[in-house]
Amino acid sequence: MSAVPVETVVLLPGTASDAVFVRSVFADPLSQVGAVIHTPHVRTLSERLTALENAAGEHPIVVGGVSLGAHVAASWAVRNPDRCAGLVLALPAWNGTPDGAPAALAARASAGIVAAHGVDAALAGTSGWLRHELHRAWHGYGDQLVPHLTEAAGSAAPTLEELRSLDVPTGIVGCVDDPVHPVGVARAWAEALPRAVLVETTLDAYPHALGRAVQAWQEAKKEA
After folding, report:
1. Domain segments of the chain: what residues?
2. What is the Cα–Cα distance from 8 to 33, expressed in whole angstroms?
3. In what order do the strands lie in the sheet with 8-12?
4. What is the pLDDT of residues 118-147, one digit of tens each?
5. Considering the domain 8-95+157-222, what is its CATH architecture?
6. pTM of the complete model
7. CB of 37 within 8 A of CB of 9?
8. Tens digit of pLDDT for each residue in 163-194?
C-alpha cells in the first residue's frame, strides 16, 4: 500500500499582518490533518506572489491566507489552476476592485494616521489580542507599513467569475459580525467556487476560529 502524500499548505498574512499570526491560527489544525504548513515572511504584494511561486514545485500545492492573503492566494490560483490543489481562505474582504470596501477604507485610514502620528496612535482604539498582534506586526513592517497599507487598499481581489473557474476543494471562514470583513463576501465566494465549504463564526471566537477553514477544506475534499 502506497503512502498518502503529505500536502503542503502555503498561507499568507492579511494586510499589515505577519507569518507569526498565520502560524498561530493554522499550525495546529493543519497538523491534525497531516498537512505541512508554510508561512513565508512577506511584506509587499509582490513578495506574497513570489512566495507562492517559489513554493510551487513539482506537485500542486494548497494555498490560502487571511483577508488580503486570501485574495492573493486565490488570484494566484486563478492564474495557475494546474499548480493549485486546494484553497484555505479566511475573511475575504471584497471581490474584484475594492470600491469602498470596509477593509480598504480601514487600511487607507490607518495609513493616514500612521503617517501623521505614528503606529501607537493608529492602534489607540484597539485592545486585547488584536492590539497585541497588530503592535508586533505593524512595528515589524517599519518604514514599509504606510506604503503597504496604501498598496493593499487599492489591490484587486478575484472577481466572482474568476472564482467560478477554480474547481479545487476550498474551505472558507466568514464572520457574521465582523464589519471590516462582511460575511456576505465570504458567502459570495463560497457560492462562486464550485467545491467550497463555508464555516461562519463570530468575533467572540477570534482569532483561533479562523483555523476552522482547515476543517472546511477537508469537508470540501470529501464532497468531491
Report:
1. 8-95+157-222, 102-150
2. 11
3. 36-38, 8-12, 61-66, 84-90, 170-175, 196-201
4. 999 999 989 999 999 999 999 999 999 999
5. 3-Layer(aba) Sandwich (3.40)
6. 0.95
7. yes
8. 999 999 999 999 999 999 999 999 999 999 99
